[in-house]
Amino acid sequence: MEKPKIGAWLCDCKGLISENINMKFLEEEILKLEHVTCVKNVNMLCNQKGIKSLIEDLRASDVDRFLFAGCSARSSLRFPEQHIHIALNQANIDIGLYEVANIREQCAWLHGPGDDRNQKALDMIKMAHARLVYDVARDPAVKIIDKALVVGGGSASLAAAKELAQFGKEVTLVEEGTYLGGRLCQIPFLFQSEQWHSRCVSLCVGPVQGNEAVFNPLISAYTQSCVDTIEKQNGNFNATISISASYVDPEKCISCGKCAEVCPEFAPSNFNEGIFVRKAIDKDFERALPDTYSIIDTSCSKCGECVKICPEDAINLDAKPEKINDSFGAVFLGTGFDLYDTKKNPELGYDIPDVVSSMAFERLIDNGIKRPSNGEEPEHIVFVLCAGSRASLDKERNGVPYCSKTCCGITMRQAERIAQTMEMTEITIIYYYDIRTYERYFEGMFDTIKRMGIEFVKGNIDSIDKANDGNLSIILSQLDDQVSSLQGDHQFESGKLKINADMVVLASAQVPKEDKKNIVQQLQIKTEINGFPMENQPRIFRPTESFVDRVYVIGSAAGPKVVQQAVEQGKAAAASALPYLINEKKDLPKFFSRIDPETCISCRSCEAVCPHGAIRITENGVYSDPAFCQSCGFCAAACPTHAAKLVNFTDQQVLDQVKVAFDGIKAGEPKIMALLCYWCSYSAADLAGVNRIQTPPNFRSIRIRCSSSVNTALLLEMYRMGVDGILIGGCPPKSCHHIHGNYLTDKRMTLFGKLLSQLGLSTKRLRFDYIGVSQYQLFVDTIIEMDKNLRELGPNPAALKNE
Question: Which of 125, 171, 351, 535: CA 20 to 30 A from 212?
Fold first, then answer.
């Protein structure tokens, strides 16, 4: 192996560092470090002139590694790691071959004049140097296949497919239904935006959106199809797609409808939510795309009448299903939503014919609002909000705990439509505590229908039953001290209210699609407590991205949304994927998991803890795909044989840092090692310095990949090497960039503390804390408390036994 050639740059930060630290002393000491070939002491590195000079000097000095001592790579607003990467790329130095000694925020600014800041700064530089010596260059970029797989054919999926195709990328779109457009096509009148208070007609916009997919040569759209299997391979996704038998040739079919006229078999119409039926060979609706008839295999008797009458010979009842296999560089899950099964709530009376879901009511709006039981026009329609939603507090029944956020707005639109077209029909809306018409337009519509005289009743449903006269009887419980409805037509008596109606519309909750759990599991995507795929953290700035690289969750697959929001997500996801598909490569991170097949025992602990789906079992054993690894280090910490290692963050590199970390500390001073997570707690330590909060100088910090990237054997070795106390800082609750690393660490350290007690070490020598970026005072207080406790405890007995 060729010896490293390290170039070291010290930045004075225009005197902000040198007023507290002797930079000349550091320069002289750095020259004594192994493999350092040059040292530059600069006044200001981060301005345009300094960066230009850095790049030129790096090129001229023939160094292959960069050691920087100055501001924090995490928290600096002038020279953070992103800026360092740009400079190193221009200097032709791999960004895996640099380390930073944060001598400004965590030394010069953090300790008082009486503290030996020079020695601590030197220790920090030696720690960075110790790791840098054994850093390795990143592996070559992985080739990304420039094709995308879009699962689902709704509005979000169509938007994503269209956007990708506009940039010349091939798209395979897989839709399980017989048509494209998804839920959009079921809703006759669509909301527009907050700025445009009007309606779109799905009969118009549905075909427009679908045509852009059907007739785009770069988009292969398959209906009545599904993804059978999908797995990650060498940075890409290999999928097997099952396509149902194409009994009707879409190239020949002219949609004349003669086949449906003679077909003797009927099938439930999923498009019409089961309220109406269709023929076994039919179109779900007149403007459905692709513009071809389809056969529902489970309802077809293969009588052949359609074959005989077809004028274009377009029907072949002997057609067979087929499978295709292809590889993709990105996957978009636009699988839509299911409605909550309100049959789980007997009190809602969903088995009664005249009790329908809000989606079924949309189909009634489109076909004429009649009672399903007798075909008559209803005289009194009652809408029930939160049917299966917000199942908490005094509504402790079956259901989901969240608000589906679209239901109230949809109900307002439906009620408005009835009021405008069925003047003799009475309308009552039952709501649970409050109406949640978010956004300006929905709230405005709410105000409008209140002025129309529509009745609103606050209450909780006890029962919906069929009365003896064939109508419906609704019993409500009073929720608070409000005893009358909005218009005063209904009054609670003894906390109860009975309302008679002839039709009930349940605004049902939107829930994840049950039949799409398989693909989510195959992609190893984590789901949140309600079953929706989790968006990446920080979610604010990475919408649509799952925790698996280049898998995007769009539209209602990620949670309840209206059509416009689904379209926005489809476009946003496409924009996120395009850099990979256009460049056809994925640069690998500096840190990534590698598993040694010689020592791996295939226990699959690594696979179980990996939050990013990077690890899988192959015929050759366990494999970690670096193109999907997001450098958390969970696998390395969980591996019982140490077969899993994090490249450029090995146990040995960490121990090499510990070995030199306290060279400059005064005899008898407690040695505190702070292992701080890459994002939150390390930045909290930085901000303590930014705010000039005085902190004991006898701690050293290592910026670890995640609080859960450190194994307990490593901690024991640190104690053996003489460390007196260890602080592990994790992200605040619910904020871990790797979903649950902080929780894993909390549990692991609780167990490890018991082991320390058995070994005769005080648990005060170990501390785990959830420390957010803004909790820098907590960080300081924790260090002060540990320093006090360690002074009382005295020297580490484990270290003494090994001296």
Answer: 535
Question: b/e map of 690-705 (b: 16 or more CB within 10 Å)?
Answer: beeeebbbbbbbbbbb
Output the DSSP codes for 591-635.
Answer: S-EEE-TTT-----HHHHH-TTS-EEEETTEEEE-TTT--S--HH
Q: For domain 649-803, give its CATH number from 3.40.50, 1.25.40, 3.30.1460, 2.60.120.
A: 3.40.50
- In which region does residue 240 sit, left (phi positive, over 0), alpha (psi from -120 to 50) or beta (all else)? beta
Take residue 768 and report the two structure tokens written for it: 């785990």
- How many alpha carbons fall within 13 Å on the CB side of residue 759? 18
Reported as a single tens digit per residue, the pLDDT across 13-53 is 999 999 999 999 999 999 999 999 999 999 999 999 999 99
Write down the pLDDT at residue 539.
64
Return the pLDDT at 197: 60
As beta bridge partners, residue 42 has 11
Cα–Cα dist 224/244, whole Å: 6
Render 661-692 in DSSP notation, one character per residue.
HTTTSPTT---EEEEEETTHHHHHHHHHHHTT
In tens, the pLDDT along 681-734 reads 999 999 999 999 999 999 999 999 999 999 999 999 999 999 999 999 999 999
User: Minimum mean pLDDT among 4-8, 61-65, 190-194: which range?
Assistant: 190-194
Beta pairing partners, 355 = 504
CATH topology of domain 1-136: Rossmann fold (3.40.50)
